[in-house]
Amino acid sequence: MTTRVLLVDDHPVVRAGLRAVLESVGDIVVGAEAPDGRVALEMLSRAGGSVDVVVMDLQMGSGMGGLDATRRIVAAGGPPVLILTTYDTQADIVAALEAGAIGYLLKDSQPETIGAAVHDAAAGRPVLSPSVTARLMQRVRSPGTSLSAREIEILRGLATGASNRALAKELFISEATVKTHLVHIYDKLGVDNRTAAVNRAREEHLI
Amino acid sequence: MTTRVLLVDDHPVVRAGLRAVLESVGDIVVGAEAPDGRVALEMLSRAGGSVDVVVMDLQMGSGMGGLDATRRIVAAGGPPVLILTTYDTQADIVAALEAGAIGYLLKDSQPETIGAAVHDAAAGRPVLSPSVTARLMQRVRSPGTSLSAREIEILRGLATGASNRALAKELFISEATVKTHLVHIYDKLGVDNRTAAVNRAREEHLI
DNA sequence: ACCGCGCTCAACCGATCGGTTGACCCGGCG
DNA sequence: CGCCGGGTCAACCGATCGGTTGAGCGCGGT
C-alpha cells in the first residue's frame, strides 16, 4: 500500500525536491502541496481522509507557521505530522514535539532516510534524526529554563523587533494574550522587558 | 542554446528540487551537482568549459562555504555565480556581491523567476530578487550605516536590555539625550523600536 | 570667522509596554 | 470526578518609550 503525503513548505524549490526524492524511493505519492499552514488545514478539512502523513516545514515566510499548523492538525485528529526542517536547535525540536509532531527530520538527510521516515510516520511510529536525538538527550541531562512551545514562538517574534500588535496578528491571538505570555516569559527568564528577554534567550541558546 | 548549470548545495532535497525546477522551464540542463564549495571547485577545474553558470547556496553545513567558493571561482575567471539562498540579510547580500556573485536570489522565488534568472546570470546580466533589491536600496540610502561612536555605545547598552534611564546613568547623560540618540539610531538603521534596532545591529555586525 | 556636525538637554504628547486581576476553556493526571 | 497547567481574553493603570520641536555647546574644516 502506497503512502499518501501532504507537503507543506513555503519554498516551491523544496517542494519540488521533496516530491522528486519521495516519489523516487517507492511506495510514496505526494497527493497535495501547500505553501503554508492555513492552506494545509483547508486541504485536510476538505480531503483529510486521503492523506496518510503530513510532511511539514517549520519556518514559513508568511502565513500560518508550521508549529501552529501542527498543533491544529493534531488537535483535529488529523494524520501524523512529520517535521522536516533545516535547523536542529533545542527550542525548535522541543516546541515541535510539544505541538504534537510524530517526528523531526533534517533536510540534509539522505533521500532513503527521508523515505523510510515518511513510511514510519505514516504508520504512527515516531522518527528522529540522529542529531535531533542527540540534542534531546542533551536537554534531558541539563533541565534548562523550560519555556512552553508557545512562549518560544513569542520569543522568536520578539527577537525580530515586532510589537505586541504585530505579534498578535502573526500568531492569530489577541494583544492581551501576547502580554500574558510576555509576563510569563519575563518571569521565567528573570528579566523585565522585551529586549532583555531576547538577550537572555540568545545567551541560553533558546533561539 | 541551452544553459548548462553547476548546482552547489549541501541539501540533496534542494538539489533535486532545483534540478526539477530548472529543467522544467526549458533550455536549462543541470550538468553537475556539488555538495560543497571544495567539490564545486574541483569540478570546475576539471570541466570548467562546460559550465555556463554556477548556482550556489551560501549556507553549507560543512566543507567550503558558498562565499569562499564564489570568491575563488571569480578569481579564477570561472563562470558567473548566482547565489540562491534562503536569507536576505544585508550582511549576506553585501558579502556575496563583494565576493563577486553576479546575482542574489531567494529560494522562495517562483520557478519561472529562477529559470529566467539563471539565463540572465549565464549571459552575464546581474539579477536580484525584489526583496534583495529593497535591502540594498535601504543600505545605500542610509550612507554606509555609519553610526557615531556615541551611538554605538548606546546600541551596546540597548542590546543588554537596559531602559533609557539605566542607559542615561551608565553613560552619565540625561534621559532626554538618550532619547535623542535613539531617534537617530532608529533613523539610520531604518527601524522604529529598540529591539528591532538591536536585531538590525546584530545583522550588520555593528555589535 | 563661519558653518556643519555631534553631543547635550528640556518639554510635551500620544502610543506602546509592563503588570495586575479575574475569567474561561481544554486536556492530562491522580 | 476534581485539580492543575497551558492557552486564551478583557479591562485597567502607571511607567516607559517613540517622536517632535527647539536650543545651547564645542570642535574641526573651508
Automatic annotation (TrEMBL), chains A, B:
Residue numbers bearing the 4-aspartylphosphate modification: D57
Q: Which GO terms describe its molecular function?
A: DNA binding
Any idea which UniProt keywords this protein has?
Answer: DNA-binding, Phosphoprotein, Transcription, Transcription regulation
- Identify the SMART domains for this entry: HTH_LUXR, REC
HTH luxR-type domain span:
140-205
Check the record and name the SUPFAM superfamilies matching this protein: C-terminal effector domain of the bipartite response regulators (SSF46894), CheY-like (SSF52172)
**Could you tell me which residue ranges the Response regulatory domain spans?**
4-122
What Gene Ontology biological process does one annotation of this record name?
phosphorelay signal transduction system
Entry keyword Hydrolase:
no
Indicate yes or no for the key word Transferase: no
Give the Pfam families listed for this entry.
Answer: GerE (PF00196), Response_reg (PF00072)
- PANTHER family named in the record: TRANSCRIPTIONAL REGULATORY PROTEIN NARL-RELATED, TWO-COMPONENT RESPONSE REGULATOR
Q: What protein name applies here?
A: LuxR family transcriptional regulator
